[in-house]
């Protein structure tokens, strides 16, 4: 009988229209559904859902609990809360909990609070999908039963989950922003029987440690499975397992924890220890190392990659697309550039590669950069790139292609692919290693500090035009090194193993040694080895040195000479110059397999020995010049032909070219010169002169001696010296005799001696000679009487240069005047002329000046006549005479001019009157010596010749007037006085009065000669003048437009015109302005050419013309043109089978104007139905698209359109596959096809899928996901399309084994004994799976096991943990075995099964209970992934064993 309180619960649960529903607590009596209409549902006390009762929460339901009351929602029956993505179910728990001992199914549920949020106990079952748990403490507490949490979110919690029993699965979920207190982990696993599976989850932005599995009391077989997770944190550890014997851990990213990422467990196969590079809510960025590396080949974590670009800050991970770097960049973690991907450094960019990345705790882990694709580090001269490494550790490996250009490179690089270096600076401590079949090219490289380029394996490298300091080149393995034009300072080339090195045209200095050969082959040609610790140190392999210089090298052990130390090598030493090396030039000690040839060398002045050998028949020495040693040869070598012991005669000790007379010339084995430097003429390096300065005068001869020396200061007595001199200093002959010129001064380097490229110069100074000529200045002078003139004189040498001296002055005659001792001359009062009138003497030489004395200055000028009256164009002569103060006529011409008009005058004073009448005072002027006199001239006019009629303007409007005047003129334009008589010659013009005022009539036009003036002079001559008059029309009064109306087709043209008239009808000249005033009505040019618009219609008053203040408009009619195109509507319609569509047609001209006057003809040409003459289409029964089937023709223009005939209503459904078999947890994709009554497939109707008979779930796309219960589910998959339903059956079978249980567990058997093991396999859902084929093996000793699981103990006693292992598929189970000593042999508990009781069997002398079978709860037994032996099972085993012993004792 119900309690009275429960009635209140029922009443409270009845749906009402209230805005809130209070649930007082208690026990639900029957299935109940809460809807959103009752929101919020407030549980006010503990509410129990009893067994057999279901509480259903519909989408949008909101449930809350009070924050001041402790209560639980007890689920003993079922709680079904299935929301939707758009309408979730919200539960606010505060500090309360949902306790699950029945069944909870939650989808799209949002839960906030809870202490814990959900507690699963006993045999309870909780399944969550697409759900969120926030602020739980913890969110999940599992002590029994099962939990399946998928595609969800747990956040803002104090703990995600703690479990002490049952089965817990978290899959594809986000764990975010949870902050446990103290040492509490996010997930705590403890107890003896929990089974925990974490797959494809993402832990990030949480506090504390992540997962802690701590089992008290020693090793346990607790089942813990973790794979495909991303676990990122900042607490102490990521995964810590204690006393867990066989966890399944693989394919996880665990990263960022302070003490350790893993404790008590190894990461397992496929795990990644690197920053997963996630952003936002667990989203993988493009470069994430967690992409495509999960155990199933997908992305690790809960959120698959969805296109998020590369991490904006961190340059690490895996580049998935080409990337170009700019600015400064730092590689902070492992970086992979896969094949096919290019990493580019833009000009000016830099990359710093860190050597270490953060490891667990305070540790650091070596960082790795692998470039399997391409690296393009190419800058410019102005903006080079940098590729740096923090330290010198081997961090970066390049397997693809790399190019460095205008770059600075620092640190270690390892190449397995190909690389080019061009114009690159290798910074100190660089290390470049080329391995495998890698190759590299170095051009224009500079090395600024210590470093190395190493070739290994079968690699190749070309080094060309490089300059390295403190850096060496190494060829090892089977590599090939080619060096050209290299300069190596304090470095060298080393060859070993089977490597090959060729060095040409290179200079090596101060190396230690410069060349080292331990094996392989080294060829050195046309180079220099200088100041090395040893030039060549070879202890194996092959050495070829030719045409090279080895000098000034030191000796360093183990080498015995500073030149070439050849021990146990084959060598060819040919055409070298070896000089001034410490100890000796060559040391040779061979083995029988070696061959050494020394030929065509010059070996001179080495410290002690030229060539030292350990005597052997495989040493060939011939055609060498060895000279200048304490011992030229040591060890009694056998000398072949052509061996010389003479001074080779170099040009100088440092210039090692042979002299022409050298005994080494043409003495080599090949007929050429010995040594590295054959004879060539040696140019002078310097010239020493007998003097370097010369002082002389002009036209003298001087010579200077010259001697030529080479670069070392040795004289070249036969050198040819060529002399030259600057033109300013003079000329010089081939013997160096200089003849000075006449240019005085100092000339540095004026004489130059040259020999080859050497030169020397002499400074020359040219100075004055003696007086040869006396020069008087001025040399000629003309003075007036009694004037003075200062003369000067100078004495000059042959070159005309003035020479300081004293002078004596004199005149040529007393009549000439007098001159002082200083050369001041005073003229006499007489006129005088003398070519040598002035004389001066100096240094025995005399000079003179010409003298001419003239009259005094002008005093006055006389003129005649002073006044004259003349007729036009008449003439007369004027006269003027200049005189000095004494009355003497001065020579010279008088200048005549006319300054005031009236006529012209020539140079002799002949004046001609002009044609202009008038009075011209002081117009005739005579000028001389600055004096001017003038005469007056009067010119009288001529007879009347013409009359000129004038007015302000000869243009006038009609009805206007003009004032005319008249003026008479003689033949030359001089005015004549008179009164005119006026006459109008054309009456149409108007009338004129006696004063010349013309009044114009109404006729416009041009009236030539229309106004006449008549005048007479005093002589009776009558002369007339005429004037033209232009009468302009009056103001514009009206306009006339032509044509007035026009009809055109689109874009046709029409020339418009306009005329203007005044009020009297006179035409007025216009400047019209044309325009189209209606928008879209066409266009018109400034000249009135109109173009019709494209659109047909009537454009009223659209064309306008304006002139001055008047305007006119006209209307244009635009009619459509011929039909050009046709439109059908609707276009490509869809119509159901047997349906109809009325079509319409419109015709248009070329300008899109609709043509309405034409008729249309309809037809169906490609099937699909029929059409009437009115254009009504009737569809057939076959669905499909009939392209261009409906056709219409209008005035010869045809248009077609398609018709899509759509299927009718759904009549039947075909579903596929039918009756599939699916593994638990796996998926199968169903498809459905719908057909109408005519057999046409209906594709437009949506399909609705659902599961109606259990077995799993299905999504909207028809993808069926099998559940965890195996069995046959007939007709469970149902699809509905267009109201028609179809079903399919499904069989669910066990999934692949995920764990294996061995029986017996942990047996104890005597040494040499045996036990038969059996195995049971279970999938991840606890369904028993076939346990075959099974693979048995012993992994930790103790004995052997055969393919049938029979274990045979060995002879060594002890406990062998987890030694017996069986593998079924990918699942593995283990058990331990204890082997007891055979001495003494204990009494067996049984010898046969009949000795035991209670269904026990005798196994190896021990009575054993039968093995318990596994089930959904895991069963008994212990395995690497099972739940372990339960306490109850252990108790039963102990009791059975005790009972057996009692019975055996009784027997």
Automatic annotation (TrEMBL):
Domain Right handed beta helix: 453-625
UniProt xrefs under SMART domains: PbH1
Signal peptide stretch: 1-20
Keywords annotated in UniProt: Signal
Lineage: Bacteria, Pseudomonadati, Myxococcota, Myxococcia, Myxococcales
One Pfam family here: Beta_helix
Official protein name in the record: Right-handed parallel beta-helix repeat-containing protein
Species of origin: Myxococcus landrumensis
Domain of life: Bacteria
């Amino acid at each position: 009988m119900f309690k009275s309180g429960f009635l209140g619960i029922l009443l409270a649960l009845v749906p009402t229209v209230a805005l809130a529903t209070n649930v007082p607590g208690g026990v639900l009596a029957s299935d109940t559904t809460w809807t959103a209409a009752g929101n919020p549902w407030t549980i006010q006390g503990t509410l129990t859902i009893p067994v057999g009762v279901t509480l259903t929460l519909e989408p949008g339901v909101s449930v809350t609990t009070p924050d001041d009351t402790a209560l639980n929602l007890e689920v003993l029956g079922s709680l079904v809360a299935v929301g939707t993505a758009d309408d979730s179910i919200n539960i606010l728990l505060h500090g309360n909990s949902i306790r699950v001992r029945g069944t909870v199914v939650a989808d799209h549920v949002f839960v906030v609070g809870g202490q814990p949020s959900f507690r699963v106990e006993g045999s309870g079952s909780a399944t969550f999908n697409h759900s969120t748990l926030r602020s739980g403490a913890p969110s999940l507490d599992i002590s029994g039963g099962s939990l399946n949490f998928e595609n969800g979110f747990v956040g803002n919690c104090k703990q995600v989950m703690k479990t002490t029993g049952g089965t817990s699965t978290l899959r594809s979920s986000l764990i975010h922003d949870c902050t446990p207190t103290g040492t509490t982990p996010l997930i705590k696993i403890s107890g003896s029987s929990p089974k925990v599976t974490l797959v494809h989850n993402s832990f990030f932005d949480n506090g504390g440690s992540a997962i802690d599995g701590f089992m008290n009391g020693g090793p346990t077989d607790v089942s813990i499975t973790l794979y495909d997770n991303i676990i990122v944190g900042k607490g102490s550890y990521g995964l810590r397992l204690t006393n867990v014997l066989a966890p399944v851990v693989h394919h996880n990213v665990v990263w960022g924890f302070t003490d350790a990422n893993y404790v008590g467990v190894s990461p397992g196969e496929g795990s990644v220890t690197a920053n997963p590079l996630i952003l936002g809510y667990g989203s993988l960025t493009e470069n994430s190392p967690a992409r495509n590396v999960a155990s199933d080949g997908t992305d690790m974590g809960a959120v698959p990659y969805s296109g998020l670009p590369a991490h904006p800050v961190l340059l690490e991970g895996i580049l998935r697309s080409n990337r170009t770097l700019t600015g400064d960049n730092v590689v902070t973690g492992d970086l992979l550039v896969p094949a096919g991907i290019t990493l580019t450094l833009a000009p000016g960019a830099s990359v710093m590669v860190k050597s270490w990345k953060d490891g667990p705790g305070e540790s650091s882990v070596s960082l790795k950069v692998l470039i399997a694709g391409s690296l393009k580090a190419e800058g410019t001269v102005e903006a080079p790139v940098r590729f740096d490494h923090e330290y010198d550790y081997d961090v970066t490996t390049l397997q693809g292609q790399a190019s460095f250009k205008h770059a600075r490179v620092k640190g270690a690089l390892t190449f397995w692919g190909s690389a080019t270096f061009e114009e690159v600076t290798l910074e100190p401590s660089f290390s470049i290693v080329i391995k495998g079949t890698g190759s590299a090219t170095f051009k224009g490289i500079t090395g600024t500090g210590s470093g190395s380029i190493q070739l290994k394996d079968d690699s190749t490298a070309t080094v060309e035009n490089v300059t390295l300091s403190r850096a060496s080149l190494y060829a090892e393995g089977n590599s090939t090194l080619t060096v050209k034009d290299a300069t190596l300072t304090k470095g060298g080339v080393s060859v070993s193993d089977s490597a090959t090195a060729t060095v040409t045209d290179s200079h090596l200095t101060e190396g230690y040694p410069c060349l080292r050969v331990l094996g392989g082959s080294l060829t050195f040609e046309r180079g220099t080895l200088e100041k090395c610790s040893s030039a060549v140190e070879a202890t194996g392999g092959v050495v070829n040195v030719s045409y090279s210089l080895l000098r000034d090298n030191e000796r360093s052990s183990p080498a015995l000479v500073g030149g070439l130390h050849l021990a146990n090598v084959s060598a060819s030493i040919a055409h070298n110059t070896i000089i001034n090396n410490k100890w000796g030039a060559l040391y040779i000690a061979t083995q029988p397999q070696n061959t050494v040839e020394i030929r065509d060398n010059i070996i001179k002045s080495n410290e002690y020995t030229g060539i030292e050998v350990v005597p052997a028949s495989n040493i060939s020495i011939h055609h060498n010049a060895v000279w200048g040693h304490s011992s030229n040869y040591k060890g009694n070598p056998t000398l072949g032909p052509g061996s010389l012991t003479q001074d080779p005669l170099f040009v100088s000790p440092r210039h090692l070219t042979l002299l022409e007379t050298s005994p080494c010339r043409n003495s080599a084995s090949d007929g050429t010169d010995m040594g590295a430097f054959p004879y060539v003429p040696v140019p002078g390096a310097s010239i020493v002169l007998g003097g370097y300065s010369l002082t002389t005068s002009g036209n003298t001869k001087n010579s200077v001696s010259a001697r030529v020396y080479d670069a070392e200061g040795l004289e070249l007595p036969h050198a040819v010296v060529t002399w030259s001199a600057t033109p300013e200093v003079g000329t010089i002959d081939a013997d160096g005799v200089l003849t000075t010129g006449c240019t005085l001064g100092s000339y540095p380097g004026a004489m130059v001696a040259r020999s080859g490229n050497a030169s020397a110069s002499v400074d020359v100074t040219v100075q004055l000679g003696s007086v040869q000529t006396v020069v008087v200045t001025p040399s000629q002078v003309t003075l007036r009487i009694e004037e003075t003139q200062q003369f000067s004189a100078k004495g000059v040498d042959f070159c005309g240069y003035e020479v300081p001296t004293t002078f004596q002055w004199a005149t040529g005659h007393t009549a000439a005047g007098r001159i002082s001792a200083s050369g001041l001359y005073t003229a006499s009062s007489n006129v005088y002329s003398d070519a040598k009138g002035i004389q001066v003497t100096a240094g025995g030489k005399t000079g003179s000046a010409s003298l001419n004395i003239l009259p005094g200055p002008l005093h006055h000028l006389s003129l005649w006549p002073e006044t004259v009256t003349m007729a036009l164009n008449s003439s007369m002569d004027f006269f003027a005479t200049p005189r000095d103060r004494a009355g003497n006529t001065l020579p010279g011409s008088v200048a005549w001019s006319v300054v005031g008009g009236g006529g012209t005058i020539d140079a002799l004073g002949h004046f001609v009157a002009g044609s202009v009448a008038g009075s011209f005072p002081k117009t005739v002027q005579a000028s001389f010596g600055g004096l001017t006199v003038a005469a007056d001239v009067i010119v009288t006019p001529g007879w009347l010749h013409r009359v000129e009629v004038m007015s302000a303007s000869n243009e006038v409007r009609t009805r206007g007037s003009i004032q005319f005047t008249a003026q008479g003129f003689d033949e030359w334009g001089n005015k004549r006085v008179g009164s005119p008589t006026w006459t109008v010659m054309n009456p149409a013009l108007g009338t004129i009065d006696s004063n010349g005022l013309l009044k114009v009539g109404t006729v416009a036009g041009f009236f030539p000669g229309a106004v006449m003036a008549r005048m007479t002079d005093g002589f009776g001559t009558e002369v007339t003048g005429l004037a033209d008059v232009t009468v302009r029309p009056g103001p514009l009064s009206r306009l006339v437009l032509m044509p007035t109306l026009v009809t055109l087709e689109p874009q046709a043209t029409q020339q418009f015109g306009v005329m203007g008239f005044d009020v009297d009808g006179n035409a007025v000249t216009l400047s019209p302005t044309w325009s189209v005033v209606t928008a879209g009505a066409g266009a018109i040019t400034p000249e009135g050419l109109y173009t019709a618009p494209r659109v047909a219609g009537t454009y009223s008053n659209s064309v306008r013309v304006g002139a001055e203040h008047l305007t006119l408009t006209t209307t244009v009619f635009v009619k459509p043109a011929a039909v050009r195109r046709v439109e059908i509507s609707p276009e490509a319609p869809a119509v159901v089978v047997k349906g109809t569509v009325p079509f319409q047609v419109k015709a248009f001209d070329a300008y899109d104007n609709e043509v309405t006057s034409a008729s249309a003809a309809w037809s169906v040409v490609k099937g699909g139905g029929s059409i009437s003459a009115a254009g009504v289409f009737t569809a057939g029964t076959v669905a499909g698209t009939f392209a261009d089937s409906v056709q219409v023709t209008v005035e010869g223009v045809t248009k077609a359109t398609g018709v899509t005939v759509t299927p009718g209503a759904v009549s039947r459904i075909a579903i596929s596959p039918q009756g599939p078999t699916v593994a638990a947890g796996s998926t199968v994709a169903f498809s459905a096809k719908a057909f109408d009554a005519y057999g046409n497939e209906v594709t437009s109707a949506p399909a609705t899928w659902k599961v109606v008979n259990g077995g799993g779930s299905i999504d909207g796309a028809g993808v069926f996901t099998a559940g965890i219960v195996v069995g046959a589910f007939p007709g469970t998959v149902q699809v509905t399309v267009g109201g028609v339903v179809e079903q399919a059956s499904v069989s669910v079978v066990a999934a692949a084994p995920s764990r294996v249980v061995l029986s017996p567990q942990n047996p104890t058997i005597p040494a040499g004994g045996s036990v038969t093991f059996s195995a049971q396999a279970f999938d991840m859902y606890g369904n028993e799976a076939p346990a075959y084929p099974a693979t048995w093996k012993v992994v930790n000793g103790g004995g052997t096991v055969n393919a049938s699981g029979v274990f045979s103990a060995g002879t060594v006693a002890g406990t062998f943990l987890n030694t017996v292992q069986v593998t079924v598929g990918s699942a593995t189970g283990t058990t331990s075995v204890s082997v007891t000593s055979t001495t003494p042999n204990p009494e067996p508990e049984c010898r046969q099964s009949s000795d035991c009781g209670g269904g026990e069997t005798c196994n190896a002398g021990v009575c054993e209970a039968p093995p318990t079978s596994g089930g959904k709860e895991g069963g008994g037994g212990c395995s690497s992934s099972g739940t372990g032996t339960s306490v109850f099972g252990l108790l039963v085993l102990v009791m059975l064993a005790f009972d057996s012993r009692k019975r055996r004792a009784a027997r």
